[in-house]
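Most newcomers find our protein records easier to grasp once they have seen one. Sequence and backbone structure share a record, each on its own labelled line. To make this concrete, we reproduce a full record directly below:
***
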Amino acid sequence: MRSAISMKPSKFGMYFGLVKPATPQILRHSLTMFLLDSGYNIQIVQELLGHTDVSTVIIYTIHKKIG
């Protein structure tokens, strides 16, 4: 059974015509990529996401280079 938290982002994604369900994880990843692409400092993004280690945020930059 899906939680109410994960159902709302899915409806949000359907509203905007997204093919994949907009899960909270996908929305978080998208926001992170948007902030990094917009030139935000990686330490600021780390703080916004609540990560204790910057290496967790660096993973997003590695995925960007590969993808």
About this structure: The CA atoms of residues 26 and 36 lie 15 Å apart. DSSP finds four helices and no strands in the chain. The chain has one domain: 4-66.
